[in-house]
Amino acid sequence: MNIGMTLTKFLLEEQRRVPGSKGNFTAFFSDLVVAAKIISREVNRAGLIDILGAAGNQNVHGEEVQKLDEYANSMFIKTMEHGGHLSGMASEEIDEIIKVDPRYPRGKYLLLFDPLDGSSNIDVNISVGTIFSILKCNPECDLTEKDFLKAGVEQVCAGYILYSSSTMFVYTTGHGVHGFTLDPNVGEFLLSHENIRIPERGKIYSINEGNSRHWLPGTSLYIEKLKNDEKNYTARYVGSLVADFHRNLLKGGVFLYPADRKSINGKLRLLYEANPLSFIVEQAGGKASTGDKRILDIVPEKLHQRVPLIIGSKKDVEEAESFWQYREA
Ligand code: AHM
Ligand code: MG
């Protein structure tokens, strides 16, 4: 391992290997790292400064408090928009696309993000995360929603930041998956997990069993099969996608938020959640599917489109897919 290798230095070295690279992407990425550090700081001291709770409340200082997910959302936008590398953004928290303020120069990238995923866990001190996806665009054109509706295979970079016992930044630019851990004393993300590979098969399954009465028969049969499997599968479900995904990425396993009778398109969002994590999992040797289609091949029709998601170790996802034929009773 390369001791003391910071995220920005690592990226710079990656960029040097790309002929003709001008370092724009690295500069853009540095802004992202700053946003991640600021959100991490706020998540870590959330309980202390009373930033939690419903928006509109006042804290002990009589100041208006913001919900942490709203804070993360505006922090991301403010930190990213003036760098000159972006033309627009799309956030899970905002209905419309965000065009970069005309006061700032426009760049050739689009940033899509879920500022604080796992919202039901925010108020109870359980790991949450930020997920992002980067696409390219033509900075000369008038930006519309259509520019964001690209299949996941077109992502140039994707990643997540996990705010947990430590804060981790995991990303891919299509050359493997690398993980960095924030050293709070140094204030830098340091390389801790180079070239992450997900085990081909795991022993963990992650699904909200509270939904089992709505499941399609294929899901019930598959989960029943895992419970009776001699490999002794174990169930783990935090309820924060980033945390569940990260654990399964390192240990092996499968996460499912499938189509069910209540939500026929699943719950998770294609552009902010499924696409970035699918890019990462494939780069790590895993697989991501709706049950019968590769996630990264889906051409989105809407910005906030939901999608069924089965993601994780290749062999586990393939096995889950083999139950697709039983989806109807
Ligand atoms: P959010 O973006 O509103 O936080 O919702 C996404 C979250 C995921 O983090 C998690 O995997 C899932 O929703 C949990 O949903 P449920 O509580 O229905 O199991
Ligand atoms: Mg989310």
Provide a short characterization of the protein structure.
The protein is of the alpha+beta class and 329 residues long. The chain contains nine helices and 13 strands.
How would you explain this protein's 3D organization?
- α1 runs antiparallel to α2 (24-44) and α2 packs antiparallel against α4.
- The protein has an eight-stranded mixed beta sheet with strand order 2-1-3-4-5-6-7-8, with helices on both faces. It has a five-stranded mixed beta sheet with strand order 10-9-11-13-12, with helices on both faces.
- The longest helix has 21 residues, at 24-44.
- The relative contact order is 0.13.
- The mean pLDDT is 91.
- It has helices at residues 7-16, 24-44, 46-49, 68-81, 119-122, 217-227, 241-251, 270-283, 314-321, and strands at 86-91, 98-99, 109-117, 128-136, 157-163, 167-172, 177-183, 188-193, 204-206, 234-235, 254-257, 287-289, 309-312.
- With 329 residues, the chain is an alpha+beta fold.
- Helices cover 29% and strands 21% of the residues.
- It folds into two domains: 7-193, Fructose-1,6-Bisphosphatase, subunit A, domain 1 (Fructose-1,6-Bisphosphatase, Chain A, domain 1, 2-Layer Sandwich); 204-326, D-Maltodextrin-Binding Protein, domain 2.
- Magnesium ion binds next to β3.
CATH superfamily of the largest domain: Fructose-1,6-Bisphosphatase, subunit A, domain 1
Poorly predicted parts: none
Q: Give me the CATH fold name of the largest domain.
A: Fructose-1,6-Bisphosphatase, Chain A, domain 1
CATH class of the largest domain: Alpha Beta
Query: Termini separation (Å)?
Result: 51 Å
Q: Helical region count?
A: 9
Radius of gyration, in angstroms, nearest whole number: 20 Å
Structural class by SSE content: alpha+beta
Strand order of the largest sheet: 2-1-3-4-5-6-7-8
Describe the biggest sheet? 8 strands, mixed
Number of domains in the coordinates?
2
Helix content: 25-40%
Which ligands accompany this protein?
2,5-anhydro-1,6-di-O-phosphono-D-mannitol, magnesium ion
Q: What order do the helices and strands follow?
A: HHHHEEEHEEEEEEHEHEHEEH
Q: Would you count the extended β strands for me?
A: 13
What is the name of the CATH architecture of the largest domain?
2-Layer Sandwich
Instruction: Report the principal-axis shape.
Output: globular
